[in-house]
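Revision sheet: structure tokens.
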Amino acid sequence: MADERTNDATCLSQQLRRNGACSNKKIIMKKRPGGIIHSYQKFDPAQFPSPTQPPPDLVSSAFEHAMMFGNYRDLSEEELARAVRLDPSQIAGLGPSIDMLRQMLEERKRKILETYETAAAQKRARRAYQQSASEVRPPKDLEKAYRRGIAEEQPYDLERLWYQADSDHSPFARGLLGVMQRMNDKLQIAELVSKYEFTGREPMSVPKALEIKEELEKIDELLRQLEEAAKTAQIGIIDMDLLQEFAEPGDLNQLEELRQQVENYMREQAERQGLDRDNKTGNYRLTPQAYKLFQGKLLSRIFSDLQASRSGRHPDAVEGDGAVELQQTKPYEFGDSAANIDLPQTVINALLRHGDTRPLQLRSEDIEVHKTRNHPKCATCVIMDMSGSMRYDGQYINVKRMALALQGLITSEYPGDFLRFIEMYTFAKMRHASELIELMPKPVTIHDPWVRLRADMSREDISESQIHPHFTNIQRSLQLARQNLVTTDTPNRQIVLITDGLPTAHFEDNHLFMLYPPDPQTEQATMREAMLCHREGITINIFLIPSWSQSEEDIRFAYRLAESTKGRVIFTSGKDLDRFVIWDYVSNRREIIG
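Predicted:
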């Protein structure tokens, strides 16, 4: 037994020296009943990053910027870090405490204010200014202006006199430079006194007072940066070079390590959210993955705002004659398909009614059929007004946000549906979903209050680039939408027209008319095209958004257009446009199926 204990002790000693552990697990487990716990310095898995907290949103800001300006550029790492807001709890306990650095700077500021007084510096600055001013001999024609400038202590007056001097090297010009320097010192010290409250007794010279002012301003700037970093966890906004003048080297090293950890976390999240990093430039660019992620966030926001009576993303089940068989059954009704009969339940119903009589006879009330759900396709053309008036209050941004949300909804929820986008201005153009970000309201190129223009677009010497682009051509947009919808293999066709007012342009054969104020001729051409849409079974739903130029006549026209095609007019503010269009699409799809 003694030899065995000696061998065990020798084994334990050798293992501890070599690996810090022993293969004799019984000895280890008796001393550490909780098992082996590994601890890593400067990493807290519960706080950085939080496993239960969603990652920061890196793409929404970039897309909002792109929708506002029509394009987006690559983002540098610094720009990405500054744009993202983190939860400060994610960096708690890592590196030096921001509160500790803030207390250190506040203590430094307090000591300065309790050490010095400013009366002596003010007196010396005033004497230096007065002595410097008395030594200057201005020319007779500038003497009065010089005395007034000295008395009023206006730097711009003395600067004007310097430009009026005969030569830059004249005694008066050189003397003015000295006077302006002394005046600047005097004003700087006056600003120091008004900005800070000194309670000490040690007097300061003028250079010392200016040095103290610069130091206090640096401290205030660092305190502002630290306060913002404590709120947003943006370590990158802290000026490390400036902080180096006040903090200890060890604290700076730890803060720099924390900044690197935050940047690495941002870089990892950027890659996960579809921001592709260019190895050459180090900048980030948006990818289709980020595009889908942004659409998903838009839809999440829209459906999170649903009323309690309309909660849930998916529409209610629609029962009828369809291809998808459900588990529930119902009594047979005239017109139900015989292919959906539930034979076991039908036989059971007959047995319950007739008992054990032979032969078994079936009646219509015995027959049970499976409930079915129908999933027909829906074809939609969205006409987006990009005329000059859509720039008002950034309405074009709301239109593009709506288009992205609708495209994301159909792609994810109703992939069999048909969706097309049309940009409406003086002309009408089909736009792919990838082009939605780049759409911008057309610039107003003519400001006459009365416009009567006609262009023959069949002429070879006339091109679209020569035409004023900011008019509203609803007629041509409806025509283009009709041409796309009539070819679809579904009877469920609709046009979503988003505009802010009356049409001001239309085509008659190859002739383009641009008429402002809106003319009955344009309205008649638009109504004719709307009736053609109605004849093809196409419903027109008008979303009328507010505009500075909107009048009662705009609203009346929208009603006339909707009534003639059995459509609807929906009034909505621009900020709620995406929500209302999505709700309307889901609601219409449910009604069409029913």
